[in-house]
Amino acid sequence: MPDDRPIPLDEYPVHQVPLSMRHVATGDRNAYDRCIFHVFDHAGSALLITGLGVYPNTGVTDAYATLRTGDRILAVRASDALGEDRTRMETGPLSITVEEPLRRFRLRCAADPEDPDGLSFDLTWSADFPALWEPHHTQRKGDRLILEARRFVQAGSVTGTLWARGEARVLSAGEWTGTRDRSWGNRPIPGEEAGRAGDEHPTEGFHWLWCPVRFEDRFVMVLLQEDADGFRTLNDAVEVREGHRDRQLGWPQADITYRPGTRTPESAVVHLTGPARKPLELHARTLLSSPLAIGAGYPPADDWQHGTWRGREWSDRRVYDLSEPSAHPLAAYGVTDHSARFTLEGRTGYGLFEHGSFGRHDPSGFTGFDSVAPPLPPAPRHTPDDRQDRP
User: Fold this and answer.
1) Which of 107, 199, 247, 300 lies most in the core, judged by the most C-beta atoms within 10 Å?
2) Sign of dihedral through CA atoms 235, 241, 247, 253?
3) Per the domain annotation, does 30 fall within a domain?
């Protein structure tokens, strides 16, 4: 018989439906509840991504951390059977502790005794601005609702110590920035057959931009998602300041400059609209990139993805070499997080330029999954007649 005893969280007045907190209100196997934190320095030398999720209807909890430095990504992943104490967010060597809700968090990864040069950290993530709700997110394939989620996002500063590859980095609030999001709902996890919907409604293209940006005196969030023809299915642009009402910044339009022969963004101008229809330009310059399909468990990762059962107390550490892009061909068909430097109205800030563009996207001129930014034109060839020093 199923175990239906109360769990510790049932002692708190947090119930939304007449069920134990052991259960969610849907039988959808894709139900999830998770968080992600980004930590990066302003010089563009390190980008840490860590998160934890639970999947109540598959009975799985898992966590991960990836650190990009140079051409390497160090990854730690862990998975286990979902336990009864949902307030204890810990899986294998990874843990996230809510020290003050919506304000302060402890992020930890225990060291591997057999690999003293491996990844470990003990960090405090502190919010600098109130959390901001994103629009309610839904997505259908044919008539079926395949994704429905709610999410909030926040920016802050990070302190503590990060160890990797024999080096200790001491994080200071003035030189490092942190962003995070917290989401829950239903979101596809591996293990389903596509069936009729997959055959009759194939993905033609997907274009995504997600930019939480921390300035000293404000937090700016830009979000857009478009179909292959450029139809906008998710849209938001908001400025948050402590003690002020959130200010909407219009309908964002992004002009992205890609590295020739790729869809890797190097810079962008995001056109926004301020009060009285004043045009605003949010300029971005990417610093360091970490594809979420490499080490972090996001699709289309081919070695591990979130919510998949790996047995009890599974953990894994890997090092990925990014010096040869052809070694990771699937990464281009997923979302990549780029730490970035931003400017807006004379202010300089730091944040995440999270971007994914694959398949057809008419506004960008991409015609299919093999379409990339055009190469640079060849340099002009000089002949003796072109010499500038001729008499």
Assistant:
1) 107
2) negative
3) yes
List Cβ<8 Å contacts ≥24 apart for 253-258. Answer: 254/209, 254/222, 254/224, 256/209, 256/355, 256/364, 258/372, 258/373
Q: Do the domain assignments include residue 206?
A: yes
pLDDT at 177 over 70: yes
pLDDT for 317 = 97
Q: Number of structural domains, the chain?
A: 1
DSSP 8-state assignment for residue 373? P
Tell me the torsion sign for CA atoms 319, 322, 323, 328: positive
CATH code where residue 148 lies? 2.40.370.10
Alpha carbon separation from 198 to 186, 188, 201, 202 (Å, rounded): 18, 13, 5, 6
Domain, as residue range, for 216: 19-190+201-376
The percent of residues in the chain predicted with pLDDT above 90, rounded, is 84
At residue 78, the 3 state secondary structure works out as: strand
* 196 is a domain residue: no
CA dist 151 → 32, 65, 138, 201 (Å): 12, 20, 12, 26
Residue 275 and residue 284: Cα distance in Å, rounded? 22
- pLDDT tens digits along 236-245: 999 999 889 9
- Domain-embedded: residue 5: no
pLDDT range class, residue 389, cuts 50, 70, 90: very low
Structure tokens at 339: 């730490």
Model pTM?
Answer: 0.93
